Structures are given as C-alpha cells and as structure tokens.
Automatic annotation (TrEMBL):
Listed GO MF terms: alpha-mannosidase activity; carbohydrate binding; metal ion binding
Gene3D superfamilies: Glycoside hydrolase family 38, central domain (1.20.1270.50), Golgi alpha-mannosidase II (2.60.40.1180), Golgi alpha-mannosidase II, domain 4 (2.70.98.30)
Protein name: Glycoside hydrolase family 38 central domain-containing protein
InterPro entries hit by this protein: Gal_mutarotase_sf_dom, Glyco_hydro_38_cen, Glyco_hydro_38_cen_sf, Glyco_hydro_57/38_cen_sf, Glyco_hydro_b, Glycosyl_Hydrlase_38
Residue ranges constituting the Glycoside hydrolase family 38 central domain according to the UniProt record: 2-71
A Pfam short name: Alpha-mann_mid
Keywords in alphabetical order: Hydrolase, Metal-binding
PANTHER family: ALPHA-MANNOSIDASE (PTHR11607), LYSOSOMAL ALPHA-MANNOSIDASE (PTHR11607:SF3)
Amino acid sequence: MATGHLFAGLTLYPPVNVFSNRIANFGRHSFKDPHELLVDRLRQAMGVMQHHDAVTGTEKQHVADDYAMTLSQGSSACQSVIAEALMNLLPNLSKFTGNNLPVFCDLLNISLCSATDGWKPYLNSSGQGGVYIFLYNPVAWNLWHSWLRIPLYIASEEMNKVEVIIRDLRDPEGPTLPYQILPISERTMEIPERRLFGKQTNVELTFNPASTGHPAVPAGFTTFYLALERKRQNLRTARVSKRISCAETNTVSRTTRLRLELTNRSIPLMVHAEHVASGMKLTLMVEMLYYFGETNGSQSSGAYVFLPKARDMLQQFEKPTYQVSLIWANHFSCFPKEECSRRQIPMSEHLKYHTFT
C-alpha cells in the first residue's frame, strides 16, 4: 500500500488526512444537521481523493493543482459547520468569544494563522484579551508527544520585554505550560504565498500540550489559553536594551528541557538540540529527497516514466579468464573372482580467476 512519502506533484497526503478527520468529526458531533450540502462538498472531494494517483502522488502537476483546489473548497465549506457544532457542544463558549465562530488555522505549513497574527494575542492595558486554542485529537488514544507551532508576531526590539502566557484550561490554576520561541526561518519568510495574505508573523511558539501531565484526550477537544503581555518597566530605571535580531533569538521557558536551533542556509537542514539541564548536544540532519518524472518527449506520461537525466559513462569489463585444476585420488575396486582394479577420480575442483584485462 502506498504511504504517500514519494510525490511527483503536489503533496496531498497530509491535507487528505486532515479533511478526512473533519468529515469524521462532523459525523460524530452533528446532532443538528442544517448544512448537509456544505458537508457533502467535502465528501465528494474526499471521494475523488481515493484515486490511486491522488494517494501516491503520481498525477501530473495540473491534476495535483486541481485536487488541491477541490480539497480547499470542500474544506472551506465544511469549516463553518464544524465551528457551529463546536459552539453547540460548548454552550459557555460564546460569552468568551463574543459570539464569534472559531477560526481554522489552515496555513500553519507556511507559519501563518489569522487568529494569532499581529497584535491579536496581546493583552490590552486593562489586562484583557488573548486567544483560545482548541486542539482536536482525531485518534482513539491519548496523545502525549504532539507538538504545536503557533505563529506569532513579536517585534525584535521587544523580544525580551514580552511575556508569553499559555495555560491548559483543564487546570486553569495550575502552572503555565513550558514553551520555546523560535524565529521563522528565512526560507519560510520568503514563500510568495505569505505575501498574498498580508499577515504579520515572525516567530513560532512551540509547546507540548501534555507537558503538565494531561494528554490530549482521544477523539475530543482540548482547550488552551494564550496571551502575550508586555512586561512593565519602571521608567526611571528602564534602560535601552540592545536591539535583538529575530534571527538570533532562541527563547526558552525555565521548565523547557530542550533548546532547538535550526540552520537556515545549509542543505541538508541541520537541527541542533541541547539538553538544558545536562548540556548534552545532539545534531539531526533533515533532507528532502525527490525524483524527476518525465514530462517531455515521446514518452510523456507524468511520474510513471523514469529516464536518466545525465549521460554517465558505464564502465565495461572484458570476460574474465580462469584456470581449472583438479585434484585426483586413487580408487580401488575389487570384484569376486576378479583382480582388483585401480582408477583415479576427481576429489575437488579449484577455479582460479585471472585479473581483468
């Protein structure tokens, strides 16, 4: 069975999994069904995705683009239905959100989220604000080691002046979750699609939802509260801090166990991990491999044809010569009323290959 790890066209395997979970989520929680037609659009898109080309990624690029557009349109139609179902499941949620429906973060693969970009997560002067994060676990078991990446904006000159508050609302009086703030890589910042949405993010908040001892519940939602607060300083004693570049920032909370650093320009990508307590270091190498499909010439058939792209010389060797030497042994055989006879039989054979010419 194809796993979806080899793709000639656009990578569709991850979004197919996400949208399949959304259909299943809707089916479990839609005790009110006013938007069946909206959900049916995503069902139809998922039906098309069962084609083997969509599963393995062996379709041509223009077909992959059409697959992606079909999935995107079906998902957008289904998002409002899931959001309303969530509001019905949590009646008290409306007073916290101001009757606004939850927003889906569909652009996390390019480090964007319309709910957390810019100044939206910041607390105002009266200490009010922040955002709620609803994490849905689609599998039927507890998740202990899933990591979330939340895109945020923190001005480079205020990097050391902003306090991050992240709490698990199952234990609102408990400790805040440990986290790490990492700058968004230059490669990601240069993605053209980021400019289309006009969002403002430059760092990512990374944390484990189960770091306080409560895993993400199976087939259900887990709610977190996130807020950014500027640290107050005494105007008389405040000093002008050194301007910090986001590319040099790597902030970890006191309870974080690992500090991670990424190299932006190296190929393959190198991930350097350091255990904060012991100082032990580990380096991981991440490399994306791909293959070329044939799209030109008489054999143009997408990703199914693999032709050499370079004219490498094939070294040929002449047929080797060999010498055979046999080891003989004397064998006696006697018959009644006859003389014994002696003959030689081969016991073993040795082949000696000569060097190639």
